[in-house]
Specification:
Helix content is 35%, strand content 23%. By secondary structure, the protein is an alpha/beta fold. The protein has a seven-stranded mixed beta sheet, sandwiched between helices. It has a two-stranded antiparallel sheet with strand order 1-2. Bound molecules: S-adenosylmethionine. The site of S-adenosylmethionine has 22 residues, from helix 5 and strand 4. S-adenosylmethionine is lined by residues 41, 46, 57, 59, 87-90, 93-94, 108-111, 114, 133-135, 150-152, 155.
């Protein structure tokens, strides 16, 4: 865990500053990975990012993100979803693409700021609802036949990944599907994408129905082992 360094009780380097410094050093990404922060990233972490740039990952303009969104949608079966839940929706770029496949879609994010852009992006899709929510401590009522966790799991500690897995399992319909997308690079986040996905899959006991992998990211579509889900 990345800890704040103190001298005589006074903070010299905060955990956040240490993490920034580690990135600035030669070989810094490796060092950052070694001193991985094992606590879930909190709202302030993401608020800082959105303060610096309203689209910090360039979801609207990046060709890489657009190609990944195409693969994400291709992984889904052609059937419609009655009630979908998207966790960590950011500014709603993926939400807008998912919405035509759903009768109802609840999209949440830990910070309010990107949700304003997301609401504007999906203003033409009134069946999409946005709420500020910190997963897994906060969780919506009801059941879902699609739960999407795209580029969000590795921001959580292993303990919170397990908690999300339990929550997902409890609110997934018998024939429901879970879609995971995880970046596979190294960072100072609490988990790597592979660790987060593997832990989630093992904990839920859900079965992979579609798995797709590139050097940079992996995609896992999961369903209940007993469910004879129609895919295409
Ligand atoms: C990298 S973005 C992914 C955006 C979108 N899912 C996509 O793939 O285009 C991650 C988002 O997850 C949100 N987030 C991180 N931790 C969260 C949590 N515990 N609960 C809800 N949202 C969270 C962040 O604020 C951020 O907007």
């Amino acid at each position: 865990m990345l800890r704040t360094i103190t001298t005589a009780g006074r903070a010299v380097f905060s955990a956040k500053r240490l993490h920034r410094l580690s990135h600035a050093l030669p070989g810094g990404r490796r060092l950052a990975a070694l001193i991985r922060n094992r606590s879930s990233r909190n709202a302030a972490h993401f608020q800082d990012m959105y303060d610096a740039d309203p689209d910090p990952w360039h979801f609207r303009t990046s060709e890489y993100e657009q190609a990944k969104y195409r693969k994400t949608l291709e992984a889904l079966p052609t059937r419609r979803f009655g009630s979908a839940f998207e966790i960590g929706c950011s500014i709603g770029v993926l939400t807008h693409l998912l919405a035509p496949r759903c009768d109802a879609l609840l999209a949440v994010d830990i910070v309010e700021q990107p949700l304003r852009d997301a609401r504007a992006a999906c203003a033409d899709q009134p069946w999409v609802q946005f709420r500020r929510m910190q997963v897994p401590d906060e969780w919506p009522e009801g059941n879902f036949d699609l739960i999407v966790l795209s580029e969000v799991l590795y921001f959580l500690s292993p303990k919170d990944v397990a908690k999300v897995a339990d929550r997902v399992r409890a609110s997934l319909d018998a024939t429901g599907l879970v879609l995971l997308v995880n970046w596979r690079g190294r960072s100072g986040d609490p988990c790597t994408g592979d660790q987060a996905a593997d832990l989630f899959i093992q904990r839920t006991g859900l079965e992979p129905r579609v798995q797709y992998q590139e050097d940079t990211y992996r995609l896992d579509l999961l369903g209940h082992p007993q469910a004879a889900t129609r895919f295409r």
